[in-house]
Amino acid sequence: MNKPATGIQARHREETRERILAAAERVFAEYGYEGASFGRIAQEVNLPKSNVVYYFETKKKLYRLVVEDIFNVWRQAADNIQPDSDPEQALGEYIDTKLELARVRPHGSKVWANEIIQRAPIVQDYLENELRDWTNDRISVIDGWIDRGMIRPINARNLLYAIWATTQHYADFTHQIQTLNDDKELSETQWSETKRAVKDILINGISKG
Amino acid sequence: MNKPATGIQARHREETRERILAAAERVFAEYGYEGASFGRIAQEVNLPKSNVVYYFETKKKLYRLVVEDIFNVWRQAADNIQPDSDPEQALGEYIDTKLELARVRPHGSKVWANEIIQRAPIVQDYLENELRDWTNDRISVIDGWIDRGMIRPINARNLLYAIWATTQHYADFTHQIQTLNDDKELSETQWSETKRAVKDILINGISKG
DNA sequence: AAATTTCTTGTACGTTCGGTCAATCTTTTT
DNA sequence: AAAAAGATTGACCGAACGTACAAGAAATTT
């Protein structure tokens, strides 16, 4: 798909694109779609505005790439939710991975949240296809576990939503959590404790006996 | 605090202010702070832009009123979390109420989410005072329950976050949920099932035995 | 090394927006 | 009913934004 990046120019192009995309994720997260501007993104990567436009043409196209990226990262995080997995372990790992993503890539999550809150004006087609199919697959797996008596008969869809909501909360509401933590970032220890506690609460809700 | 609203003028003023506030909540939710404009809000209530400006002076002031309003509604929803309440019932009612608010007033929740995602540029002082005190009070109550052996020793703060995240998810991510529900609004039955399932998952995580 | 393609950058244009202001109309107070 | 206060509205302004464009610099291809 991508060119192998021979030559000085091609290599430099990829590098610049990546830098712009990273900055765009931050700026879209912090200011919202309308609030973000080419000017501010350009400033963050120390390039003239017109150069950023040259690489991505329109704000909409740049934004879409940012949104699709975070979705694909999340999709991978659920790879281990398979019919033959151990439910508690698979979901535990899924929660761990999503919380780790909330920690190291909070901006992508915020952009996604913003897009959904505003009724997906840009990526609605993505929701109707990729997201819908992917979600239904995961629900089938969980229902399969229930059929085989491996977990309590909970509502698979609402469980999935609870996991999404809780894990993404730590990305989207970072600022609130930080304020309630006396304006300090969560420490290493607090993150571990959070992972343990979230699994404790959610997994306890599904296990038998 | 408010004038008793005698006379035609005063009554009409209150009425107009309310209509504008309701429209502003919708518009801020749907377009974000930057994306929302006096023009669009004015259009929704069929008034000239300058009249809306006359009532609220600046966009910031109007926005702040909207944000404070939803916070106060949420605060009330937790009134029954008291030391002498039955934990499972009190938290169950809290979840029910918050889900009902997610259903009937999704816009306020979205505005709050947006504000927090963007690092509370307008209401940071609110977080530092009202929200922080209120949260610590609730955590004390839950820890009290744990001390008296009424629930499992879970992490009270993370439990609170899980409840917020999960309930508000049904407001903030309405559009995604609807898309995954074949583009249909959740039915009466589905809302009941959701309330049951969310309580099932979260409350099961705290109960003893 | 000449020709071609790709990248860089400053300028400029049309639009939208928040907010001001003054003129007019309506309600309340005296 | 005269005077004062409050409400309504259209016109207007300066700033910011998305993006089109042209002209030159650099890299690549021939």
From TrEMBL, chains A, B:
InterPro entries with a match to the protein in the record: Homeodomain-like_sf, HTH-type_TetR-like_transc_reg, HTH_TetR, Tet_transcr_reg_TetR-rel_C_sf, Tscrpt_reg_YcdC_C
Signal peptide segment: none
Keywords of this entry: DNA-binding
A Pfam family per the record: TetR_C_3
Domain HTH tetR-type stretches: 14-74
Swiss-Prot/TrEMBL GO biological process terms: negative regulation of DNA-templated transcription
Annotated region of DNA binding: 37-56
Molecular function as annotated in GO: DNA binding
Keyword match DNA-binding: yes
PANTHER family recorded: HTH-TYPE TRANSCRIPTIONAL REPRESSOR SCO4008, TRANSCRIPTIONAL REPRESSOR
The name this protein goes by in its record: Transcriptional regulator, TetR family
Lineage per the UniProt record: Bacteria, Pseudomonadati, Pseudomonadota, Alphaproteobacteria, Rhodobacterales
